[in-house]
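Students often ask why we bother encoding 3D structure as a string. The short answer is that it lets us treat folding as translation between two languages. Here is a chain of 261 residues written in the first language.
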Amino acid sequence: MEKSIVFITKGKSFLATTLIKNLTAANYTVTEAEPNIADTEEKLKNTDLILLFLGDFVEEISSFLVYLKDIATEYDKLVILVGNSDEIETAEQSLPAALVAAAFPRPFDMKKLVEEANWLIRASDDLAKRKSILLVDDDGTFLKMVKDWLSSKYNVTIVTSGAQALMYIADNKPDLILLDYEMPVTSGPQVLEMIRSETKVDTIPVIFLTGKGDRESVMKVLDLKPDGYLLKSTERNKLVAAVDEFFEKKKYKDLHDQNIQ
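And here it is in the second language, the structure alphabet:
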């Protein structure tokens, strides 16, 4: 497995050099960089991890830390901090906790740092392989609940309106959309109609979420030809199982379609 890390520091200390050697020995491609935008802009986009080896220069790079926060967020990169406690605390004032995957105050165990880096790459690789789901509902409580149910297996993005859903899929292509049937302003059926009319996104599967389970309401939903429907009253285990089953059936359908081409 190829592993890459951008090692950012100012100058070159004995400890930094030794750490780079340890990472290289652990089969990392280590790209060294100075803590400035010009030297890191392209390097940060094409790496698995970012290691910021801090020093007393941390007070001088506040604008770079803001830039690092923005680019790590945009390209979904995790950051490892190495430094003394004060240096790490200063860096964490600019870098949100969600981006700082690990922090190693000096003195630290190099073996443990390399093991942590390996674990983070494996975890990130696993997360990247997960199916993505866009969950659309105007009920914030329901959104949070269903996201919690599905997040252990899937990458779940939540939006609270049809307009937000359409904006999201303009730049992203989820593997499945779970779409509330009844929403104000732009309803679920209107969103589905707009999705099916755009060739760029018309193949995204859509499953309606509906609060009505009577025959008339269900037939009305199915007349729109979604890829399925789920009652919003469905219990946790059954809802997760239904999503699992959808992806399993789709996998075999895709394999079948490939074989007959």
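Translate back mentally: The first strand starts at residue 3 and ends at 8. Keep this in mind for the problem set.
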